[in-house]
Amino acid sequence: MNHKLILRYMRPADIPQVVIIDNQSFNPPWSARSYAYEVGESSYSHMVVLEDGTSVQPTNGWRRWLQRWSDHPGAVLGYGGLWYIAGEGHISTIAAHPDYRGQGYGEILLAAMIHRAITLQAEYIVLEVRVSNAVAQNLYGKYEFQIFGTKPNYYRLDNEDAYDMRLDLTDEAMLARFEQRFAAIKARQPFTDQYSMLTSPKHSQE
Length: 206
Description:
Blueprint (H helix, E strand, L loop, with lengths): L4 E5 L5 H11 L6 H9 L4 E8 L8 H8 L6 E11 L2 E9 L8 H15 L4 E7 L3 H9 L3 E10 L4 E9 L3 H17 L2 E4 L12
Parallel strand pairs: 1-8, 4-5
Antiparallel strand pairs: 1-2, 2-3, 3-4, 5-7, 6-7
Helix pairs in contact: 4-6
């Protein structure tokens, strides 16, 4: 099935679907209250979802504008979290729905958050990843994240270590390569981007 992909800021109405994906992806998962804080209260969070727009009935005129902020979102295929604080971008979470893994949705979300960090003028991006998660490390490596160090016993449930991975956003050559990758993703899996270059109402004064 082909999905009409929409990349956009996470809304409160998305949280029930996001929590389901989170519970299927992480242990321990974030709570619904944590997501509500990130979406509605945090001044540094830029939460994103990848929506299946085919599950939303098309509308015209003012109804199209209203639907953009409606309480009836389409199916959430994946989500991510980007924090931006004092020049640092931090990818706090990222996951694709288990039913749709292996289709490149995680890569779209990762690239979108990198692009959003660039538009926010972040100097670098950091993230943590399990030392055993080779699949995620390969994806981050594709986008030129480097292992900066190791955080011992980072994951509380099983005390597994995490790699601290970082991407320098001040490297002009890297930025040019990234733009090429981002364009290639959009050519391969077209999506409507309402996230990486736009601000949410919460950040409208940034």
